[in-house]
Amino acid sequence: MPSLFGLERDKDVEALRELLATSDNPMVRKRAAEILGNLDETGDEEIETLVAAVQNDEDEAVRAASIDALTQLEAIDALLTALGRNVPEESANWAKAETFVSDLTADAPELRMAAANVLGQIGSENAVRPLMSALDDRDPRVRARAARALGQIGEPTAAGALANRLHGEPLPVRREAADALGHLGGDDALEGLLTIVDADSEELRRTAATSLGRFGDERPIDALVDLLGDESDLVRRSAVFSLIEILSNVDSEKSDDLRQSIVERMSASDDPSIVQSLAEIVEEGTQLHQRRNAVCMLGRVAGEQSKKTAGESLINVLDDEDQLIQQFAATSLAEIGGRSVETALLHTIDEATSTDAIAMAAFTLGKVGSDRAKRRLERLVDDTESEEVRRKAFSAMSKLGGGGQDFGGLDF
């Protein structure tokens, strides 16, 4: 049998169903249920297997994971049936919300968990007070799901109640409360999160770092900068992602000063995980402003241990569809400088198929190149059929003392 990771990667629904139904290991059954809940495509057989786990599995963690999976799959009617509840004839969300609000005080903890899950999914504001009351439920599984639901609804008045669950609770409850506070925002949520940035639990500190990045303003900056010195690589990386997210949302008048402050702290650590996190944002990010910020910062924070990672990431976006990213990448490569960057740029000129990449590599060599770069640029001017490449090469040669006509390059 392949690993659970392999089954998840391959979306092997049949094998996951079999594990959930027959494995002797409750941890395996729990993880199989979680994966089924995260898959995009599931059919009736998968729903039936999850229903059977809710009804019959002897392990409470497996039952809870199966309830979560059915909720994520929006199989609400099946979930109700599994828990012995009648399906409301009225299919509107308000009718379902009324049903599940009453179930928050049901005898069976599985039904109370399901109620909290569905109320969060529906997003009914009328459920906020009942869910806040459910934070006092005797079962920590219910408390955790009530906290998650309050985060999904996003009602700021729940912040105080959630902050009270950040301490003295089992870790799953504390983690869900911390995550929910990041979705709520506001002063109360921020104050609560700041009390756990030095928590003993690495997982809780990481959740706090992620949640602080959702605030969209500069208030959490100091705490996140402090987390750049955390002993955990995962916490440090979460702090980097959050700092970039905040920089992408603050007013432009403030962003330069904030960026400089953050860069100074990142540079002082010479931590490869910080550069790796920035590189991931550059390569995999979906928000343009975040990618631009990461590109800008890479060249300024890359220390001796991480120049190669930073350089490779920047070389790869010299032909990005966003021209500002191209320009920022050239500037960052010049910030790194050195023979290794020059070599990588020369390799790009020799091997790249993109005219944009060759042109920007040539232009950047004007900032970091030596005599060997000048010689290669001279050949490039003679060989290229692209006027843009020729223009950038002339500009670079002028900067290197090659006597070519200076066409001005790019405006930075």
Q: Which term fits the overall shape?
A: elongated
**Please, what is the average pLDDT?**
89
Please bin the fraction of helical residues. over 70%
- As residue ranges, the low-confidence spans are 403-412
| Biggest β-sheet description | none
Q: What is the architecture of one domain at the second tier of CATH?
A: Alpha Horseshoe
The first-level CATH class name of one domain: Mainly Alpha
The Cα radius of gyration reads: 27 Å
What fold name goes in the CATH topology slot of one domain? Leucine-rich Repeat Variant
Q: How many individual helices?
A: 25
Structural class: mainly alpha
User: Which strand-content bin applies to the residues?
Assistant: under 5%
Distance between the amino and carboxyl termini? 55 Å
Spell out the helices and strands N to C.
HHHHHHHHHHHHHHHHHHHHHHHHH
Number of strands: 0
Give an account of the 3D structure.
Among the domains are: 201-336, Leucine-rich Repeat Variant, CATH 1.25.10; 348-412, no CATH class. α3 runs parallel beside α5 (60-72) and α20 (307-315) packs parallel to α22. It has helices at 4-10, 13-22, 26-38, 44-56, 60-72, 76-82, 93-103, 109-122, 128-134, 140-153, 159-163, 171-184, 187-194, 202-212, 221-227, 233-247, 252-269, 272-284, 288-301, 307-315, 323-336, 339-351, 355-368, 371-383, 387-399. The relative contact order is 0.04. The protein has 412 residues and is mainly α. The radius of gyration is 27 Å and the shape is elongated. It comes from Halanaeroarchaeum sulfurireducens. This is Phycocyanin alpha phycocyanobilin lyase. Keywords: Lyase.
